[in-house]
Design brief:
Number of helices: 5
Helix content: 10-25%
Order of helices and strands: EEHEHEHEEEEEEHHEEEEEEEEEE
Distance between the termini: 24 Å
Radius of gyration: 21 Å
Largest sheet: 6 strands, mixed
Shape: globular
Strand order of the largest sheet: 3-2-4-5-10-9
Length: 289
């Protein structure tokens, strides 16, 4: 038998928001387990829980005891510490102004993220002392004719991201459906935002670091006495068609495990291993399929 060795838990049940986070985690090679059973939090150790659409009150003890939570969607987490809701915006076609690029290094050259859907507005005065919004709302503005686009845009202080401490832990809440938007559009801006939030919340950094192409799926599983890292080359998948995949070469993997030796089952040979702090590092010379 084998079980997931992931340190990130994605909560279900399936929805477009859930599928957006699912796809993003695969593309960015963050090992994760999936479940809608919160009893897993007492049976396994997770560094981060992701709730794609709201978060139940049962997550409170996990966070307050040192856990990390990333929640999104228009159902506010049932956790203490959030400022009061002041308004619910429906079908809002606007933008988010990025105010703190040091917090979002993946978006250093990005100024705006698009919003297309509902949004829950919180009182900016209710943010923790000293915290300035990382994202602020630009409400809908003129979108035509071309010479008038964005000429009436208004900057606000309405937050698009809330960061809270709870006991010994932390949680972040995006009060809009970023997971659903990523599922529908795969915007690099939304992907960078979520990747940076995951990195910010992980207390010990990523479990796996790699230069692998986003179309290489990597899973980490544990059996007695060994860890399995499984690679799947998805480059041959195009919509409803399937072709021979493009070979991927020199895939470097740094895995936060204490292994001293590595072997490629597909190539039938050993792979050199180096140690970099808590990471074991090896390279897969080629991945055909």
């Amino acid at each position: 038998g084998q079980q997931s060795a992931a340190r990130v838990l994605l909560l279900g049940p399936p929805s477009s928001a859930y599928r957006g986070f699912f796809r993003l985690l695969i593309q960015q090679h963050n090992p994760f387990a999936v479940s809608d059973n919160l009893q897993w939090l007492g049976q396994r150790e997770f560094d981060l829980v992701i709730a794609a659409d709201g978060a139940p009150a049962e997550l409170g003890p996990y966070v307050s005891q040192g856990g990390r939570l990333l929640a999104a969607g228009t159902t506010p987490p049932a956790l203490p510490g959030l400022p009061p809701v002041t308004r619910r915006w429906k079908e809002t076609r606007g933008y988010w102004r990025i105010r703190d690029h040091s917090f979002l290094p993946s978006l250093k050259d990005t100024r705006l993220l698009f919003l297309n859907g509902d949004y829950v507005e919180f009182a900016s005065a209710g943010l923790p002392p000293g915290q300035k919004p990382v994202l602020t709302l630009i409400p809908p503005s003129i979108f035509g004719p071309p010479e008038k686009v964005f000429t009436d845009a208004v900057e606000t202080d309405k937050p698009g991201l809330l960061l809270q401490d709870l006991g010994q832990g932390k949680f972040a809440y995006l009060p809009w459906d970023v997971g659903g938007l990523y599922y529908r559009h795969s915007s690099p801006g939304h992907g960078g935002l979520l990747a940076d939030l995951v990195d910010h919340l992980l207390p010990r950094g990523r479990q796996l670091k790699t230069n692998a192409h986003p179309l290489v799926e990597i899973t980490v599983m544990r059996q007695r006495g060994r860890t399995l890292v499984h690679f799947v080359n998805l480059s041959g998948h195009s919509g409803t068609a399937y072709f021979a995949p493009i070979p991927m070469r020199d895939i470097r993997v740094a895995l936060a495990e204490s292994f001293q030796a590595a072997r490629s089952a597909g190539l039938g040979r050993k792979l050199p291993v180096e140690r970099e702090g808590r990471y074991g590092v090896f390279s897969l010379p080629v991945l055909e399929k």
